[in-house]
Amino acid sequence: HQGSEYVLDDPCEVTVGRSGDVDLTLVEGMVSRRHAVFRVAGGELTIEDAGSTNGTFVNGDKIRKRSLQEGDRVLIGTTILKVVFSRLPLGTKPPPPKSRPNDDMQTTDRSGMTGRLEEVGVPELLEMFGSARQRVILELESPRGNALVWIAGGRVLDCEVRELPGAPAAKCIGRALGFESGSFAVRPYHAPDDARLDAAIPELLVDGLFKLDESTVLRQRLPADDELLALAKPMVPSLNALDERDLEMLQRAHNLGVVQAILDDSPETDLETCRRLLALVERGYLRKS
Fold first, then answer.
1. How many CA atoms lie within 13 A of 190 on its CB side?
2. In a domain, 1, yes or no
3. What's the whole-model pTM score?
4. What is the DSSP secondary-structure string of 174-237?
């Protein structure tokens, strides 16, 4: 569970698995009875997969054995363990764990794991679950919106954002990638009603993060939330020069005015919408009000 700690002494060896006779028990179907072993010796922390069925992952990479560094994230089943090295003076005994590990570090197939997006971002979550080829539903709650992401076999099958009802999955996953704060939870998998996206996660991340960066830059050139877009008066260019999608965007801007409302209402991705709005401003159809 979020916020639980397990303190490792130097030296020590800690076995993680589903069995009740290991040092750290994670009760979930994706975890093997003896899944992985943490070892501390001479100030170095390593992890070794113990022949698990579903593998052990560090920062999205499937590993056999690896030395761990500050901030590394280890994925075992659907549980993410973040590595934090103690800053205590040499020879100081570390404090006991905040909670009993065999109680608070457990996850179940019913409730799944939870965490903060400030600690583990959406791209990193997608990469880790994709690399593990796990079947999960990722639930995201953020000030920017609330989303569900269906992940299976290293692919994102679908995505929905509650604040964008009926929006295309490509628009929803693009919006979800921009969630930088809030919480996440892993829910038991069930197939989406329609696999509207079905995109391989590595390619989706490369394309999605590029578009997110570009849309962020373009958004800064549009009016702030307390300003409006309005029809240019007088409107010098002819409406006949606009194609159907430009005319729809012009009407949407006239009806809504606020850029965020236009972004939410548009069926196009945020990047496509920003590009179209800026083009209408530059061509003299819209003005900042």
1. 2
2. no
3. 0.72
4. HHHTT--SSEEEEE-----SS-S--EEHHHHHHHHHHHHHHHHHHHTTSPPTTS-EEE-SS--S
26: closest CA among 46, 4, 10? Answer: 4
Range of the domain at 165: 113-214
Looking at 83, 100, 128, the residue that finishes a domain is: 83
Token pair for 131: 């690399």
Whether 106 is in a domain gets the answer: no
Cβ atoms of residues 61 and 131 within 8 Å: yes
d(CA 215, CA 167): 18
AA identity, residue 34:
R
Lay out the sheet containing 61-63: strands in order across.
Answer: 61-63, 56-58, 73-76, 79-82
Instruction: Return the structure tokens found at 276.
Output: 């179209």
**Cα-to-chain-centroid distance, residue 263:** 21
The pLDDT score that the predictor gives to residue 278 is 96
Residues in the chain: 289
Cα separation, 184 vs 146, in Å, equals 10
Centre a 10 Å sphere on the Cβ of residue 44 and count the other Cβ atoms it contains. Answer: 11
The set of residues, in sequence order, having a beta carbon less than 8 Å from that of 161 and lying 6+ positions away, is 145, 146, 147, 167, 171, 172, 175, 176
pLDDT in tens, 48-86: 999 998 889 888 788 999 999 998 889 888 788 889 887
- Can you tell me the distance from the alpha carbon of 97 to that of 24, in angstroms, rounded to the nearest whole number? 12
